[in-house]
Amino acid sequence: MSHSHLPVDDSSLGRSELRRRTAVRRRAVVLLSWILAPLAALTLVGMLLLWPGDSSSSPIAGNPYTAAPGAAILTGTVQRTSTENCPGSAQKSQSCFIAHTSVQGGGEVPVVVTPDIVQTRGVKVGEGIRYLKLPAMPAGLEAMGPQFVFMDFVRTVPLGLLAVLYAVVVIAVARWRGLRAMVGLGGAFAVLAWFILPALAQGKPPLLVAVVGSSAIMFGVLYFAHGFSARTSTALLGTLFGLAATAGLAAWAVDAAALTGSTGDNAYQLLNLTQGMSLSGMILCGLIISGLGVLNDVTITQSSAVWELYELAPQTSALTLFRSAMRIGRDHIASTVYTIAFAYAGSALPVLLLVSLYDRPLLDALTSSELAEEVVRILVGSIGLVLAIPVTTAVAVAVVKATGKQEAAAPALAN
């Protein structure tokens, strides 16, 4: 085929090249479907077998703050704040920070704000808060504590504004693909809320729940956000490999590192509500799910890199194409490993700060129950990520070269 750069020929060659590339991609999709279709079927069968049963069999925790008869959780707007004697306190000289909060029908109630909130941020006039209203003491009995106690802030407006801003920015920059990615993210959270969490609560095997649920998320998110194409299918195959590697390594690491999951504030409450659910199994599930986003990122990028390199130089040998793509992959590995480490370090910053204040050797601190889970999360996620890149690259090279051979045997479409 002539590669003349005359303006008259460019348009014709462009249409021919577009048809050629479309044909190559269609053949690649068919080739990959022979591998991915059985995996999709296994994922669907796994979800059906592991699907949580009747919701009535799931443990349900009532609101612990409303256990007392007559207690209720209410919301209101702070009208004014002051430091004054604690209402209902036996020690009249004890001072409390009071947020005088409006109630329905008019009037105010003195809400006692806990010292930790006062020290970290405080409560400001005009803010919405949630507070616990305890039942009033019977006549003739002296109150032993405040009747209105601060619980939390009402964050509906700022979180809603952030969500709207996020949607606007994503759609403005990525347009239709950004919108599809956001819808796919909603579907991923639906799988998490309606399948993974209820299945764990009902005692389903955590490893299987995590692998099946994560696979379903990746099938939906990748195809919905990026469309049905050879690049997407290649990235999905690499993602599933990385997911399998992460799951196997996480299963070993949780047992070998003796991660019990009993160090968190909610551990014993979960044990009581779920009648002895394995907290280490919950950690295992979390290790697998936490790396999905970064894993998806590197595989789709690596697949696209291989495809672009091939389309720029179709005659490149498979080995040269693999080496070129891996040079891109190594740069991606270096930057993404930092991303994983800093993301987990940021989320565990309070624990890191607390451990740093203890007078103990660094190795003891890193291997302590407080930090061991985060260390394992970083290492397991990074290993699965690194292994997925060469596998995705090799699969992408094999697909483009296989379709290229078919095209060499059949001449390109006529201009």
Topology (elements, then pairings):
Layout: H1 7-50, E1 72-85, E2 95-102, E3 108-113, H2 115-120, E4 128-133, E5 148-153, H3 156-201, H4 206-226, H5 230-256, H6 267-273, H7 279-290, H8 292-312, H9 318-347, H10 349-357, H11 362-366, H12 369-409
Antiparallel strand pairs: 1-2, 1-4, 2-3, 4-5
Helix pairs in contact: 1-4, 1-5, 1-12, 3-4, 4-5, 4-7, 5-7, 5-8, 5-12, 7-12, 8-9, 8-12, 9-12
What does it look like?
- The protein has 415 residues and is of the alpha+beta class.
- It has two domains: 7-52 and 175-409, no CATH class; 64-154, Beta Barrel (OB fold (Dihydrolipoamide Acetyltransferase, E2P)).
- Helices cover 65% and strands 10% of the residues.
- It has twelve helices and five strands.
- It has helices at 7-50, 115-120, 156-201, 206-226, 230-256, 267-273, 279-290, 292-312, 318-347, 349-357, 362-366, 369-409, and strands at residues 72-85, 95-102, 108-113, 128-133, 148-153.
- Strands 3-2-1-4-5 form a five-stranded antiparallel β-sheet.
- Helix 1 (7-50) runs parallel beside helix 5 (230-256) and helix 8 (292-312) packs parallel to helix 12.
- The termini are close together.
- Residues 1-13 and 405-415 have low confidence and may be disordered.
Strand content: 5-15%
Succession of helices and strands: HEEEHEEHHHHHHHHHH
Number of helices: 12
The overall pLDDT, averaged over residues, is 79
Shape type: elongated
Whole-number total of structural domains:
2
Low-confidence stretches: 1-13, 405-415
